[in-house]
Every structure is written in C-alpha cells, then in structure tokens.
Amino acid sequence: MTVNHYADGVKPARLTGEEIAANFTDMHAPLGDHEASVAADRCYFCHDAPCITACPTAIDIPLFIRQIQGGKPADAGQTILGQNILGGMCARVCPTETLCEEACVRNAAEGEPVEIGRLQRYGTDRVMAGNTHPFSRAEPTGKRIAVVGAGPAGLACAHRLAMKGHEVTLYEARKKPGGLNEYGIAAYKSVENFAAREVDWLMGIGGITLKTGHKLGETITLAELQDGYDAVFLGIGLAGVNRPGLPGETLDNCDDAVDFIDRLRQSDDLAALPVGRDVVVVGGGMTAVDAAVQARKLGAETVSMVYRRDRAAMGASDYEVDYAAQQGVRVVTNAAPSAVNGDAGVTDITFERTKSGPSGLATTGETITLKADQVFMAIGQRLDGVPDGLELDGRKIAVSGPGRTSLKGVWAGGDCTPGEDLTVVAVAEGRDAAEDIHSTLMEG
Q1: 323 burial class (0-12, 13-18, 19+ CB within 10 angstroms)?
Q2: Angle between helices 116-128 and 33-41 (to 10 degrees)
Q3: Which segments of the chain belong to CATH 1.10.1060.10?
Q4: Model pLDDT for residues 37-73, shown as the tens digit of each residue
Q5: Which pLDDT does position 344 carry in this prediction?
Q6: How far is CA 404 from CA 188, 385, 415, 432, in A?
C-alpha cells in the first residue's frame, strides 16, 4: 500500500545526518588479518564437521577456515564461492546462530562458537576485491536458458549455468537485480551498496544477459519462454504481501513493512525518510525485526514489535529479537491486532490478548491499545500470478528433486517453492536446479 500523506508525528530528520550515519554503520565490522587469524585458530577442524551439515549450501567450513589459518584468504573465498556464489551476502545476513554456528562443537562445549559468518565474509571479501572473476566459462554448449527473477535463486542459477557454457537470459521485473538482497535486507546489514556490487561481480562470469522491467505474465509469458529457450528457471520470489483485513488498515501511515524497508534501502538520504514518533510493527519474523530496528535507528522515540504468539514461535531468531530489544524495541507477545484506529491517519492500534490451547490460538477477551502514528504490517508475503499449468504445493510452486516443476523443461527455486525463506536456501536451490538443467540438456 502507498502512504498518501504523513501525519504530524511522521516526519523526516528526527535525527541529524551524522547521527543516522552512525546508526546505520555495519552491524558487524569486518575482521582484520590478525582478528581473522585468531578466530580461525579456534576451529577444531572436526572430521565429521557438523557445521557443514548445518549449512544449506554445504560449504566445506573447516577447509576454508584452515585456508585462512594458513594465510590464504583468497583460497578460502574460492572454497566458499564454489558452493555459494552469494557467499558474501550470506556472510552478512545468514542466521548463522541457528545454522552453522549453532552446530559448532565450540558452541556445545563453551557456548561460544567459531565466528564462521565473519570468517566467511573475510574470505569472500578478499576474492571480490581481486581484479579478475575467479570462475571461468566452459566451452559454449549452444543451449539457451531463461531465468526469471534476479534474486538469490535466479542469480545463483544463472551463474552456474553460465559457468557450464550455456547462454542465459536473466529477466527481472524491477529496475535493479538482486531481489531480496537489494530491496528487502536491513540497511545496517548490507552497507556501502554491497548487494549491487555483488551482482556486478557475479555477472563478471559472462554469458548472462540481464533484462530488467520484464514481469512474468505481463511483458513475458511462460509459454513464450518455453518456446524460445531450451529450459526455464523460475525464481520469482513472493511479490504479494499478506494483509489481515483489519478495520482501519487502509488509514494513512498504516503501511507494509516490506515497502518501508524497500524505501529505506533505495533512499539516497536516510535523513529525508519520514518516520513516526510512536511506531508499531505487527509481526514476529525477520521483516518485522528489520522494520522495527530501522525505525529506531531513524529516530522513532518508541517502537513496539507485536506478535500474536509467544516468543518461541517467532520466525526471527533469538539473536535478532535480542538485538532489537538492545536497540530499544519493545517486544510484545501473545497479542493479535484487532483494529487500527484513527480518522485520516493512524492514532493507535488495538490488540487482543491470546493464549495457546488444545484448539490452537485463542483470544482471552483482554485488549490493549498502543499509541501509534505509524504502523507497519509484517505478517508474511505470498506468491501471486502463478502461470497456468504449474502445480502448487499449498500456496507455492510444487517441485520434485532439484527444482523440477510439473511442466517439462521448467524448474523453480527460492521463496516461490516450499521450504525455508532464507537467502542461503534460495542460493542452494538455484545452484542445484542449474546442475540438473545442465545434466538434462546435455544428456538429452
């Protein structure tokens, strides 16, 4: 939903440009050479390496850490990027605390895992700083593949196919490639325009033609792509936004959290971005956390993140919720929104208290009302505009094996297919689909 006008309490420049710049510095500063060496020395180099199993892209974590320990960070980066071509962004945004670092033996023994994410960033940054792309293309195969969606899944698929010698046309609905990495990740997690720089670096493989402004079902159709290409990969993400249908949710300054994050990410001047004095974010996932924290960093005086279930059921990790609380976000659980209140713009929002029982979630009859001049809804996204002929699994595109859909010659991966909606998972699915597309085309 587009915000039509801002109420008196919603205004830009709540903080000075200097204060905002300080608030939006890198969430985790990069490791220096000595710091990386010390962090690498903590690895046990386990023979069974549970961290590898916990990584959706199956990076050989002990190997790349040993390469850092041996003073070869570029080799470490090559090890990482061979499995995860978006390893730089994943090092910044992956919930490592619930993946590789949670599985780390040091974590079980001491409660303090090896800093795998920061070491991964150290290695990938060294490779990306080089003058040449570390991967080269195989001999041309003569095959042409259409990849729809230039998000993590589509980019990973396109790069792997190009590396195999295929010609790839990458279609993207928006003006810029990158998908969630470009438009939906908190700005303090991806500073200095890293998402765009990573895409430019990835495209250095060659063999990929990017066409922006092309949306499936509007400027291009699946049938046309099937006729014009040897294979099609769909990495179309989740473009739709869920809305609860509350009374008052169309009031000015009741907005979708994804739109707020999008505006923030694309802003050239964060001090010019309006934010409320009293902000309420409805939801308990990563989008809710990112919206709430960034509202605080822009100068909102009070920010509440309200979730209808208990904290254990939140989609965001404990680490992220704790970080939000450290930034001054009030976390309220077991409260479901019932009405957004106001005349033209939002003045407050009412919630009903909830409890979990044998029949599921139920309201208790108790209500609370939170003052708000700005409300962000972060209750999930949905798949819109599914082409005819594609079978669904629930509300997403059904796939078997490495991304094969119900249509011959059409693969899919990323958030538009079942599974966890994580960047690293999308990369793995795009990569694996590319391998299957290559095998299918070359073996006939």
Answers
A1: middle
A2: 140
A3: 33-128
A4: 999 999 999 989 999 999 999 999 999 999 999 999 9
A5: 85
A6: 36, 19, 15, 10
What's the CATH code, domain 144-239+383-443?
A: 3.50.50.60
Separation of alpha carbons 342 and 375, rounded Å: 12
Q: Which residue reads 């960033």 in tokens? A: 121
Residue in the structure block whose two tokens are 């249908």:
245
Phi, psi of 4 (to 5 degrees): -85, -40
CATH architecture under which domain 17-25+242-380 falls:
3-Layer(bba) Sandwich (3.50)
The pair of structure tokens assigned to 336 is 């479901």
| CATH number corresponding to 33-128 | 1.10.1060.10
Q: What average pLDDT score do residues 218-243 get?
A: 96
Residues of the chain with CATH 3.50.50.60: 17-25+242-380, 144-239+383-443
CA dist 237 and 74 (Å) reads 32
Confidence of residue 8 (pLDDT cuts 50, 70, 90): low
Q: Dump pLDDT digits (tens) for 309-321.
A: 999 999 999 999 9
pLDDT tens-place string over residues 69-112: 999 999 999 999 999 999 999 999 999 999 999 999 999 999 99
Transcribe 35-71 into DSSP letters. Answer: HHHHHHHT----SS-HHHHHSTT---HHHHHHHHHTT
Per DSSP, the residues of 335-352 read EEEEEEEESSBEEEEEEE
Beta bridge partners of 233: 147, 411
Give the mean model confidence (pLDDT) for residues 283-297: 98
Is residue 185 over pLDDT 80? yes
| 375 burial level (CB within 10 Å; 0-12, 13-18, 19+) | buried
